[in-house]
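If your schedule permits, I should be very grateful for your opinion on a structural question. I have a record of one protein: its chain in single-letter code and its fold written as discrete structure tokens. Kindly check, if you would, that the fold set down in the tokens agrees with what the sequence suggests. I remain grateful for any guidance, and I place the record below:

***
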Amino acid sequence: MANLHAAAALSLCLSAFTLMNLCRFVAAVDSSVTLWSTVLPNVVLPETLRQSVSPVEDSQISTRFAKALSRGAVFPSMSAEFCDAADLVCEENVKISSYGLDAEAAAPRASSIKTINDFQFDFFLEQNLVVGGEMHLSENLHDPIPTRAFLPKVVADSLPPLTTANLPKLRQTFNIADKTSMSTMMGTAAYLCENPALPGEDKDCPATLTAMAQFVVSQLGPEVQALSTTGAPAHTPTHQSPVQIESVTKRSLAEGDHIIICHSIMFPSALYYCHHVTGTKVVQASLRASDSSIINAVGICHLDTSLWASEHPAFTALNIPRGAEACHWSTENDVVWVSAGTQ
């Protein structure tokens, strides 16, 4: 009987502990969503971003970690504890297939990235986006980058700027050794984020939900709409088959004249490269995969590619000259922002 009472007491304690942690998580989510709502009161938080809300936004572990950062006293054990609690990816040798390449090729390709446009793949011409037609997609718009949470604001504010000069400090923060695949990808992120935007563009690399919302408002105002690709497979398809184009929506040139594209880029925490671009057209299509699932895809057509690198793969893939219109799909974790009411 005593054992039964002890077991019941233990079960009650575990339930209370679970409930307490659940309440803390909900509070953190509510805090992040509240901050978002203050900046973008009329915009529902996109699901792809909701999944990246930090579970430790207002927790003691975030405060302790931020204080350790400010003292320059982050130890490997503390990094491991924080990475685990904050739902980050702090593995040194991240195994991902990167933008149509296998895992072994991912890190070398990441080191050769010059601009965010070099990340794009699955190019197409708008004229070929016809209902009833077929299209080949390398990964069916599955994002090979693993899911991570955003940094808590208190931690993001305590980190040095994301630059190549600060990489040693940032690698130490997340306990990432040099000459590893994660180290290479962190270097790519730093290179992209510290370089100036292309002529006519503005950019930012938000590491928190609030920072992304603030950039969007600074460029487009608060009346915006978020578009994302949905229905992509949970894993990269093992068998590549063309998708069937079931429906097509071509949004207005007026809307595409000013949009923001936020690309998910690899870093231990969720990190986006957001750039305000002009001279584009947003297209949407329902694509039926070989397993009959439907991918609701969002694509971007760049009307003028004259500023792209001459060796950009789009020119070879589409057999077009530099400067010609080129379109590409966004993957499931990217977010395209358009001004509301201009479709």
Remarks:
- The first strand starts at residue 123 and ends at 124.
- Residues 310 and 322 are 6 Å apart (CA to CA).
